[in-house]
Amino acid sequence: MAESTEVRKLVYLVTGGCGFLGEHVVRMLLQREPRLSELRVFDLHLGPWLEELKTGPVQVTAIQGDVTQAHEVAAAVAGAHVVIHAAGLVDVFGRASPKTIHEVNVQGTKNVIEACVQTGTRFLVYTSSMEVVGPNIKGHPFYRGNEDTPYEAVHKHPYPCSKAQAERLVLEANGREVRGGLPLVTCALRPTGIYGEGHQIMRDFYHQGLRLGGRLFRAIPASVEHGRVYVGNVAWMHVLVARELERRAALVGGQVYFCYDESPYKSYEDFNMEFLGPCGLRLVETRLLAPYWLLMLLAVLNALLQWLLRPLLLYAPLLNPYTLAVANTTFTVSTDKAQRHFGYEPLFSWEDSRTRTIRWVRAMEGSAQ
Ligand SMILES: NC(=O)C1=CN([C@@H]2O[C@H](COP(=O)(O)OP(=O)(O)OC[C@H]3O[C@@H](n4cnc5c(N)ncnc54)[C@H](O)[C@@H]3O)[C@@H](O)[C@H]2O)C=CC1
Ligand SMILES: C[C@@H](CO)CCC[C@@H](C)[C@H]1CC[C@H]2[C@@H]3[C@H](O)CC4=CC(=O)CC[C@]4(C)[C@H]3CC[C@]12C
Q: Where would I find the 3-beta hydroxysteroid dehydrogenase/isomerase domain in this sequence (predicted)?
């Protein structure tokens, strides 16, 4: 990697840079973007780990801020060459209100776009989601589809609605004139379910398994495939596409790309067992004990309890009618669009991704090992 100071001239901003994906993007940029001179990390909650990054050749600027506040966003964007907008409220459990989800995911994205236009930042990468496509509320399978596969995308839930709206705004902004007269170049990356070091839901399943004496109970048929992608590869795709937005603006601008790698096609639970199994948990088959109607009943009961208890406390279990429907509907991608358009190849093999994730689970406090 070139380490000359002359080539270090670019300023990048990563919103949501202290989140699960954001932290990997930040670390990947520092390792793999030799032209970086300053990296601005913008987040509502800054992580203490940022401090250790401040000793390298790149100036790391931590900015505590809120994407819903246009002036805070504009101040952070001013002077940046590239913005990677990964901040978002990821909530399919009913923790936040639909209004808050909309404010953060849609208004926050509007603020980022307007800040780019006003301050003259030309390159914007948006972290979208597979959820802008599906699974839809009708439960139609999306089997190894690509970016052009026809699919009836029907959203009701606030999270996919907000991601779909925000993605549309980003793509429509491609070509807008920014301050200085040049066009804005935008694109959107759509990860499927991300896994890897720092994944909160994996942590939750692991702890649940420990509480249940080292067991998890199968709820989803093994035949339902759920798309997953390793966080390091998602981060790498962001870094690559951000780099190529300038060189291949005409090709990449206004495009969407699914995030993919060599992770195998499996059900959500079987996939999790690739990591939780080697850490001492086992998946107990319960199809006869827990038929789908019973799970749906439990999910509806959870939703009802959430609503009843809301004035007193926040009850937000993993299982609700929406999460059950997503987990229970096949949604997998098979595409090479990112490879064709900007030369993406996964940086981490499946073996690497698996090993790294297992190492992280093992290192967690309360490990069964
Ligand atoms: N986790 C997953 O499986 C997937 C995530 N995504 C998208 O990837 C992005 C990152 O998600 P994760 O890292 O999983 O979530 P995360 O919750 O770990 O990270 C989101 C970050 O955004 C920050 N944030 C939230 N509200 C903010 C605000 N108002 N102002 C500034 N920062 C704010 C949070 O503090 C957090 O650090 C999100 O846009 C999400 O929609 C897309 C597909 C799958
Ligand atoms: C029925 C339960 C019994 O074990 C399993 C419940 C699992 C769910 C909590 C997850 C199943 C599918 C996940 C979602 C999916 O990976 C797509 C996503 C994309 C995003 O952009 C955000 C996260 C998520 C909605 C993800 C959330 C957790 C699941 C619903």
A: 13-285
> Strands (DSSP E) along the chain, which ranges?
10-15, 36-43, 59-64, 82-85, 123-127, 142-145, 185-191, 193-195, 215-217, 228-230, 255-259, 282-284, 331-333
> What are the beta bridge partners of residue 283?
216
User: Which residue lies with its CA nearest to atom 3 of ligand 2?
Assistant: 219
350: which 2 tokens?
A: 């499946």
Kindly state the helix (H) or strand (E) to which residue 327 belongs, with its residue range: helix 321-327
Mutate to test the pocket of ligand 2, among 326, 328, 332 (most ligand atoms within 8 A of CB): 326
Say what the pLDDT of residue 369 is.
52
> What's the token pair of residue 105?
């995911």
User: Domain limits of the chain?
Assistant: 10-199+228-264+333-351
Q: Hey, which CATH number is domain 10-199+228-264+333-351, 3.40.50.620, 3.30.559.10, 3.40.50.2300, 3.40.50.720?
A: 3.40.50.720
Distance CA 329, CA 315 (A): 25
Ligand 2 atom nearest residue 318's Cα: 9
**What was the pLDDT predicted at 3?**
45
Q: Tell me which ligand sits closest to the C-alpha of residue 69.
A: 1
Residues annotated as catalytic (active site), given as ranges = 159
Provide the CB-side half-sphere exposure for 291 (13 A, CA).
Answer: 2
Instruction: Give per-residue burial for 222-261: e unless 16+ CB within 10 Å, then b.
Output: eebbbbbbbbbbbbbbbbbbbbbbeebbeebbbbbbbbbb
CA 227 to each of CA 49, 100, 330, 347: distance values in angstroms, whole numbers, following the listed order:
30, 27, 8, 18
Three-state DSSP class for residue 23: helix
Pocket probe for ligand 1: among 14, 15, 18, 21, the residue whose CB has the most ligand atoms within 8 Å is 21
Q: What is the pLDDT of residue 340?
A: 98
CB atoms within 10 A of CB 151: 15
What are the 10-residue block averages of pLDDT along the chain, 369 residues in total? 59 98 98 96 97 94 98 98 98 96 98 98 98 90 97 92 98 98 98 98 96 93 95 98 96 98 97 97 78 89 96 95 94 98 98 98 73
